[in-house]
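User: We ran a pulldown and think these components assemble together. Before we commit to crystallization trials, I'd like a predicted model of the whole complex to look at. Sequences follow.
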Amino acid sequence: MPVFDTGVAWLPPVALTIPILLSAAVLVGYRRVRRPVVDAVATAGAACVVAVTAALLARSSEGRVVTWSAGWAPSHGFSVGIVLVSDPVGDGIALTAAVLVTLALVFSWRYVESAEGHFHTLVLLFLAGMEGFALTGDLFDMFVFFELMGAAAYALTGMKVEDVGSLQGGMNFGIMNSLGAYMALMGVGFLYARTGNLGLPQLGEVLDHQPRSTLVVAAFVMLMAGFLVKGAMAPFHFWLADAHAVAPAPVCVLFSGVMVPLGVYAAFRVYWVVFSHQLAPGDIRRTFVVMGAVTAVVGSVMCLTSRNFKRLLAYSTIAHVGLFLSALGYLTAAGTAGALLYVAGHAGVKSALFLIGGVMLARYGSVDEIDLHGRGRDTRVMKWLAVAGGLGLACLPPFGTALGKAISEDAGVSAGYPWAPALFVVVSALTGGAVLRATGRIYFGMGPRPEGAERPDQTSGSREERDTRPLRRVPVTMLAPIVVLLLGSLAIGVVPGVHSAAQRAAEFFVDGAAYQRQALLAAPAHVAAAHLPEWTGRGLALDFASAALAVLVAGVGLWGGVLHERLPLARLRRRPLAALRAAHSGHVGDYVAWLLVGLAVLGGFVGLPHR
Amino acid sequence: MSVYAYVVSVWLLLVGAFGIVRSRNLIHAVLCLSVSQSGTYVLLLAIGYQRGASPPVFGEPATKPTFRVVDPVVQAMTLTDVVVSATVTALLLALAVQIHKRNGTLDPDELRNLQG
Amino acid sequence: MSRRARLMLFLAGGGGLCALLLLGVADLPPFGGSFHPYRTHAVAAAVSHATSNVVSSVNFDQRGLDTLGEESILLASVIGAATLLRPAKDETERAALGGGRTLESTRFLGYLMMPVTLVIGFDVIAHGHVTPGGGFQGGVVVGTGIHLLYVAGNYPALQRARPLRAFEWGEAIGAGAFACVGLAGIAVAGAFLADMIPTGTFGQLFSGGTVPLLNGAVGVEVASGTAVLLAKFLEQAIMIRPGPGRGRR
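Assistant: Here's a predicted model for the assembly, 976 residues in total across the polymer chains.
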């Protein structure tokens, strides 16, 4: 009978129970006490979860922490309970979620003024959902916490009930993500019927010894429906722009910073533990590299053409998700390590930019780049924070994004894709350039004042409802999280030993067999220590190149108006661009049609070659 | 007939999606989502069924426990699924109520707030 | 996209997905077969913890973490719906007027069936670990049973019988109680949601260990949540009107 180390096995369930308890407490008490008390309790709760997940991460860096809930450890090779397996990657994401929630709650002290007690309850339940999703090792449990994240998120997105755009965004988000979840549940059903198990290690162990079958391919495609809708891979990504454009800024932080990467994490976790023997690695690699590239390109192009600052940031999240999918899709530990660092650095930078967008909305009543031309000229600190954010997104060293990108490019070349660095450089340059262009226009008044006429096929930012009373000065509770997030992203690129730590975490992540053994047999994990250099010459060069290219893109965007029309390509560009814009229509029926097309394509990629 | 129940579940999923694609009313779309979900109920319960087996409840006072019962795990999963569906549908219907109040219409073709 | 283009796109994607799913489904174990390994272990585990409703045992004992997540989803959705249905800045809540005509028979049946329904609901919750039913099912019966007052034609009576604040508390207390039992499991038995009370005799009312406790917590939460949810929708329809003034919280 295997013996599991119970020293810290109680930490994962505590990480997801604290937010639930506190949300219940807030619900009981919020009418009796004043607002600052509610804020303090919620923020303290999130900070507790930070402490718990940090302790868990410290412990799991030496070996996964396995918890069998309610004490149902395996006997005679079978367990009826639910297993929670914390490895460094899962704990890292859980920690990031807790940190972002804490900072978002601090920002909300002065920023969110309506639906007060309920806002905190929903955010805490959202945190519980994220923690459960990241830490669990059971497929049906993943579905349950996925839906918990979803329920809280739909309500948080549509929170501004006076704003029709919010409600529509919330509805599109709700229908798409729920449909994805139900499809994932069908996939879980297929696997359960085939194996009689629901836990990831057990499923992996049984499927490893079975011949390849269409049922497993169908189960994989259906599971990916759920995870990749959440993870916003093209063509499942349409809901993300709608939801981010309308949700309050602290909520967008949570979506872009951690909820969307969780979808990508789940897809690859399930692949490595359950499907890595059943599905040919070559097929999977090709699938994710191609679809990741498509996602990245679609995201960057739409990003450049957006004038609504929050929608611009949403499209840049989609573009970066495409890059994460590519890096993870190389199916090597090096690619995974690069993706991890890129996700962490991106979380810091993107969250800071969303909070800056929130401040913009609060001060000026709009997030439209063209309407706000020059309005931010008299800010002293905010303009430079925005520039820092833009450069961070463009992967200027030593931001964490730059480190992640450099490692991912290397991994791509080693995996046999020599065009990988070009993709990464171009995408980060385009997205960073779009942010820098918006920053230049709003905070520095650069560029000629464009005609403000709104086009019918473009969402402007000027009709967005404020989240709060108009602000004259930016309070410290809103400034501090922005600074902390940017510094955090910088720290990832500066602190020594980060690459080696990420590489170790990645080795844990891609070793599905060790995951199974450690969960079922309590066999200890062995990971070789690696000492890898942080920055290489080529990585640095490519990073500086993308930052420079981003500045160029921003410049062209600001001053190149005439140039756009004179270029011979302009006419060629107009039709496909208009078609791409029209596809992002805000109509939920379109989105569902694209979902089915994407699943058919995915099924083709994964199922056809070996038949 | 050994795959009939499973084919029904696939049909329900796809017909629900079809309903959302062709829908002219958001309340109709939310209910089509429920239809899609019923496909998962049918699938789970069909997976758990065994011919000639009894229900997995031994009652009070208890009958003699036996292993020849239908699968209780999928029943528990379906119960969870039903609760999730009911509550998420309620949430989406609340959104629909407010959209109708603000926009005067529930036709997705008429809602043009989020283009591009 | 035009409706026709959307339909074409759907047929293309749906056709491909349908083919994949049908091929997959053909590979499933035959309907009604006997390959259910998890079932065998679940029944054995339920009997070992003296719970004669195996589904409840799976729900609250063996896979209790799923149920914690599920009741959190309920909490989040009810609070979310309450947030979405709150009076907006340009609306007010006016007091509900009673009255309107209902048939005598409707009113009689409503008042007669309400206590019966409530008792049935409580019974379903209390016996959830030995007979079919449990916290979720019984909670919905109780939560909707209260609304027979509304069906019988008397909205103000419903409002008096269902003080909203108390039910919000009920929700929170139910969710919190579940979480606390789970944490107590860590303190007492070393594992989250462990079955730590004596399990009693199989097939009797006192059996199952923590399962009846968790059933009760869930029952309280679901009943309160259902009542709050229906209340918010009814308020939207009956009480909230456009007009100046800050909407009442």
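Chain A has 23 helices and two strands. That may be worth checking against your pulldown data before setting up trials.

User: Thanks, that helps.
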